[in-house]
Specification:
Largest sheet: 7 strands, mixed
Structural class: alpha+beta
Distance between the termini: 69 Å
Number of strands: 19
CATH class of the domain at 226-427: Alpha Beta
Helix content: 25-40%
Shape: globular
CATH architecture of the domain at 226-427: 2-Layer Sandwich
Length: 429
């Protein structure tokens, strides 16, 4: 019985997707719920699961093709077998040696069966890896079956693939071929201007990268963006983290990072300056009376901004757990469109890459974004004395159409005050 494989229901507001790659090839056996192909939308990666056990008989759409919900992708045969046909007659025993020579046709059949079996095993191993892990494996030419998975059900995680790639890179390279004696070298004159390694490669943008580019250009062309800066002394935050990090992790099962402090400080500042939490729609200003904070996460596919819903009602542990979960799912390619939709204000941390200062771009239709940067020990004048303090430059980019400079500056000062005296976050002052 033939079973059709069609594009699953795409998320709301997503018109189409790109079929990135097939994880199975015609003739290979597939198991129910096994991933057959990867689909890429503007924001998330989707998998196409097999609805039944069987053999992939035919692929209707090749990789790189744009597809829509319900479009036919492939056909599975529930009754077919991957084993090569055994219809060939038994070979006769050759006179004189007592052994049965293998006819060419049978040899070819056995070879094909062996190849299918090997390919099926490799594909099965590859199917147990997430999209991010598979990309690492492909980039480093790692055999799918060579990596032991530490994820659920033996799934190969991105960390597994990265570790395997590092191990492979550490293996010493083969010794170079012995030099050809001068007398044996061909007398060919090579021009001094000859060069190698000047090849070029044209690669189409992924859908996510193209969407990011579109939104960035849209934000800059439709909003009056301006950035204001300040700096914050993180001595108090660092001392608080050092004092409670062990007990915090033991109780809540998650590390106490800096981001929860910045999320909480931003919410306090947004409460004081509601226009920073607002958005422009035509000639109206939409004031949001809730706080959905987007936290930018860098992935192999590009920047994603998952949203912490009602972050004002979350504890520090809730914020840290939410961010850790989003980051893991974003990098594994399993984050959903709903996780990335909405948001009233965003925070991005370029400091993890070493950025000392930057001007972040607003995540439209939001009206502002906070940029965190590298913590750097610097000499500061405190009470008439020069002391070394852990300092960070802060930046807030805002839509000047509805947010005045005075409000933007005071908003950033409010964040600075909360971080330099974390007790304000507990007392709401």
């Amino acid at each position: 019985m033939s079973v059709e494989i069609r594009v699953p229901q795409l998320p709301e507001s997503v018109a189409d997707a790109t079929l990135v790659a097939w994880r199975k090839q015609p003739g290979e056996r597939v198991s129910r719920d096994e991933n057959l192909a990867d689909l890429e939308t503007d924001k998330v990666m989707l998998e196409v699961p097999a609805p039944v056990n069987g053999v992939l008989r035919e692929i209707k759409v090749q990789g790189g093709t744009s597809v829509k919900t319900g479009e036919l992708l492939a056909v599975i045969d529930e009754t077919a077998s991957t084993t090569a046909s055994a219809a060939a007659p038994a070979p006769s025993v050759a006179a004189g040696n007592g052994k049965a020579p293998l006819p060419a046709a049978a040899a070819g059949s056995a070879s094909a069966a062996s190849s299918v079996s090997a390919a099926s095993s490799a594909s099965a191993a590859s199917s147990r890896a997430g999209p991010a892990a598979r990309r690492v494996m492909e980039q480093n030419n790692l055999a799918p079956g060579s990596i032991a998975g530490s994820g659920p059900g033996g799934q190969v995680t991105k960390n597994d693939a990265v570790a395997a790639a590092a191990t492979a890179a550490a293996v010493p390279a083969a010794p170079p071929a012995p030099a050809v004696p001068a007398a044996a070298k061909p007398a060919v004159s090579v021009p001094a201007t000859a060069r190698t390694g000047r090849s070029e490669q044209r690669v189409p943008m992924t859908r996510l990268r193209a969407r990011i580019a579109e939104r960035l250009i849209q934000a800059q062309s439709t909003q009056a963006l301006l950035t204001t800066f300040n700096e914050v002394d993180l001595t108090a935050v660092q001392e608080l983290r050092a004092r409670y990090k062990d007990s915090f992790e033991k109780k809540h099962g998650v590390k106490l990072g800096f981001m929860s402090f910045f999320v909480k400080a931003s919410i306090e500042a947004l409460k004081r300056f509601p226009v920073v939490n607002a958005a422009v729609e035509n000639n109206d200003i939409i004031y949001h009376e809730y706080f959905d904070i987007g936290v930018a996460v860098s992935t192999e596919r590009g920047l994603m901004v998952p949203v912490l819903r009602d972050a004002d009602a979350m504890s520090f542990a809730d914020v840290e757990s939410g961010i850790a979960d989003y980051a893991a799912r974003a990098r594994a390619g399993s984050i959903t469109l709903e996780d990335l939709t909405g948001g009233t204000f965003s925070i991005t941390n370029g400091g993890i890459f070493g950025s000392l200062m930057s001007t972040p771009i607003v995540n439209a239709p939001q009206s502002a974004i906070l940029g965190m940067h590298k913590i750097q020990q610097r000499p500061m004048a405190v009470n008439g004395q020069v002391v070394i303090r852990p300092m960070m430059y802060l930046a807030v980019t805002y839509d000047h159409r509805i947010i005045d400079g005075r409000e933007a500056v005071q908003f950033l000062v409010a964040i600075k005050d909360c971080l330099e005296d974390p007790g304000r976050l507990l007392l709401g002052v």
